[in-house]
Amino acid sequence: MGTRVFITGTGIFSSIGRGVDETLASMVNGKTGIAPIRILETVHRDFPVAEIPFTDAELLALTGLSKDLPLTRTTLIAYIALKEALASAGIQQTGDERTGFISATTVGGMDKKETFYPEAATSQEWLKYIDTQDVAAHTEALADLFGFRGFITTASTACSSGANALMLGARMIKQGLLDRVVAGGNECLTRFHLNGFNSLMILDKEPCKPFDQHRAGITLGEGAGYLVLESEEMVRKEGKKVLCELTGYGNSCEAFHPTASSPDGVGAYLAMQEALKIAGLQPADIDYINAHGTGTDSNDISEGMAIQRLFGEHVPPVSSTKPFTGHTTSAAGSIEAILCTLALQEGLLFPNLNWKTQMTDLNFAPVTKLTKQALKHVMSNSFGFGGNNTSIILSKY
Amino acid sequence: MSVYIQGISCISPQRSFLSEGLSGEPVNYDTPWLSCIEPVYKEHINPTLARRLSRYIKMGVTTALTALKDAGIEMPQAVITGTGLGSTEDNEKILLAMYENQERMINPTHFIQSTHNTISSQIAIMLKCHDYNNTYVHRGFSFESALLDGMLLIAEGKSETALVGGVDAVTEGHYINYARINRWRANTNGSLRMITDKGAGVVPGEGSAHFLIGKEKSPNTCACIKSLELIYKPASSAQVIERCNRMLAENGLTPADIDLVISGNNGDTTNDFFYQEVSGQLFPDKATAYFKHLCGEYETAGAFALWLAASILKTHQIPDGILQRGVVASPLKNILIYNHHRGDQHSLYLLTAVL
To answer: ipTM value of the model?
Structure first.
């Protein structure tokens, strides 16, 4: 049981926009962020990506922070999203013990590390960034810039990281450990993971087409998304406006293979089932699923089968928004949760772009056109490498 | 949020693995960093698999599996890992390959193993455990976050048990990297002297420790974790002292009730003052033990301290070479662990004996 958890603010920055308004406009206009590589320096220029169309120098200028600070691209992107989230929730004080900050990333400061790698032993400029390599560096840089001093941690479970940050935040509020948590994930594009995913041969040379019979893999993206979670009491005490309620969450492990999902999607099934149980809902109560839908052979069949098995006759409208934002990996869980808050607020089903051909193994097709529909409960799935599956349910308030 | 420790296992620079407490004389290291006394991994992991896994993963998986054995259970209801560094070995291999081969011919195994959740994932795959699975990577809070999450799962009634671990492994590349920003102190007179031979910087170490924590007291249960507090960048020791008093009060205790303090001093003149001030204020006459001269300084050293505390409560014996002052009360009931990493991530653990 425990206290209810409300979303009182959101902040987002990705290839489809800086801020919630720009993001919504892109979603409504069917405007994808996927394009040929412009910013990242790599030999693999034949993979489209969803980059934030600013160089590091331009991002720094947007933040207004000093160039003397050791800021990785990860931190710069996250800073901008976090700032919006706090402003949107009207948060002035961040430093109390009952406020938590839970971030998530996988590459951390790898963007700088891989750049300086050949001269790491001698470069003077690298000295400034050495302590930004690890995953937590961005969390603490942000905590210090924004004044968080309560509970601080960083989750790192690959593509489900952002969702796990939200889930931990919600649970800590429900158990009365914290009153408020700012949670979310971020990831910047790096050669490291572009090459890593490429070595697994799961990158599409065309923009990804999730749930399509001829899907050919992932389109990587970058971005950050942060949500402000507050307890019932905080909302009432401070007369906060509520965007929606975080009603359900589930975390399970595929326990099948380090990178592939099981054909029947047992992990996905369990995560979604658990989320429903926490929310006190039946499958028929879900009005929309924002799928993990990466466009890989493995994920889409696995997730699709799990959805069919769990929802049976009541498979709701499903779409993956990764053809808009790309697969933002550690940010996906929180970016897509924010898209779900927009779906709830605006009463919109977002389309699964690039879809043409029904998957022969599935009996449902995704939503392919922007559709007006009143929504009450929506589910957001994030399934990561290593079999980390997390499902979040957001409900209209 | 209290939980019982039903099983423990630790690979460290000391003789800790598959040992009822630390055995033998403390091991001294003359090398720049303390490295683990490692088991024969193929006795615990399928040899074909073991060949493919990097050292860091082998360490983590081995203590996880042996902690389960120690608890006498086959399937935990959650798997949560904390690591500060992740697999630097695999990370380095990819960077080297990218550089030498101009981003061609990257080995996918190294990429998979470089993601920080690889240990939690590998454990789950081996056990076929579909339950809650998570990984925290936050410097000196990595293990404590994992433990807190496990304690929360049990308090929520979601899980009856959780397999929680802290794993970090040093590589030469990591050492060289951070040497450039003067992170380290030279191990001039041997690791056992690191605390008394004060200086700026730390002598690094490594280790892997796992705990099967649970809601119930089982026959193998050795200790109860009553509370865990995490404090981020306290402005001064006053904040730590205040939190400590509060934590004790919430458990109906005062500093006078603590029988043994396990303190994370490492000789670093930059921030050992926290330990001295907290100890001086709250536990001036209490039996106090140090542990970092045994394992070195690293992000998940708290896991070694917890293993040490749990094994002391299990064996009712204080190993040689750790007690700095005072006489340990008998029976030993309440242990307080105070540890911080670089003066930034502080944690307080309250453990009690299980009678």
So the answer is: 0.98
